[in-house]
Amino acid sequence: MAPQKEIEVQQKKEVASAEEATRSARYYVPGTDIHESDDALDIAMEVPGVARDGVEVTLEKDVLKVVAQVDFSNYEGLEPIYTEYEVGHFQRSFSLSSKIDQGGISARVENGVLHLHLPKTREASPRRISVH
User: Fold this and answer.
1) By the 8 A CB rule, do 114 and 55 touch?
2) DSSP for residue 125
3) Is the Cβ–Cβ distance between 116 and 105 less than 8 Å?
4) Which residues, in sequence order, are bridge partners of residue 116?
5) pLDDT per residue as tens digits for the range 74-121
6) pLDDT tens, 33-82?
7) Is the dihedral of CA 122, 124, 128, 129 positive or negative?
8) Distance from the Cα of residue 35 to its chain's centroid
9) Which is nearest to 101 in space by CA: 52, 41, 55?
């Protein structure tokens, strides 16, 4: 049996960007899991508090960029007496290899999680070579 591990509060990491922001808001690095199968990469990214229309996924020069913005009007008038969860936007970028079929990338948001499906190109998929 594996040893029990205490639950720890994980602190959000703020995005360190060389870009200048035109509006004052904090951007955090979303918690992300990446799973690889023979034919695709599947990414699950935590974006709590973000609606589907608040997510922007762009692809430019082999860089997949995700920006997820929280609607701060949902928090107007609230005065927290204690908080561990800081409200802010999310941002993350990934450099894609030539093994990803960029035209087949899809995205959906469900229950505060952004799911990205990045299919591999046919050439990148493993296959069995017949021996004659």
Assistant:
1) yes
2) S
3) yes
4) 43, 107
5) 778 888 788 777 778 999 999 999 999 999 999 999 999 999 999 999
6) 999 999 999 999 999 989 999 999 999 999 999 999 988 887 788 887 88
7) positive
8) 13
9) 41
The Cα 19–Cα 42 span in angstroms is 28
Q: Could you tell me whether strands 27-28 and 89-95 are parallel, antiparallel, or unpaired per DSSP bridges?
A: parallel
The total number of residues shown for the chain amounts to 132
Domain layout of the chain by residue ranges: 40-124
Domain 40-124 has CATH 3.60.110.10: no
Rounded to the nearest 10 degrees, how much is the dihedral formed by the CA atoms of 22, 23, 28, 34?
Answer: -60
Q: Which two tokens stand for residue 69?
A: 């913005």
Question: How many whole angstroms separate alpha carbon 1 and alpha carbon 132?
Answer: 49
Strand partners, 46: 113
Other residues' Cβ atoms within 10 Å of the Cβ of residue 45:
23
96 with 105: CB under 8 angstroms?
A: no
Would the pTM of this model clear 0.85, i.e. be above it?
Answer: no
Q: How many contiguous H segments (helices) and E segments (strands) does the chain have?
A: 0, 8
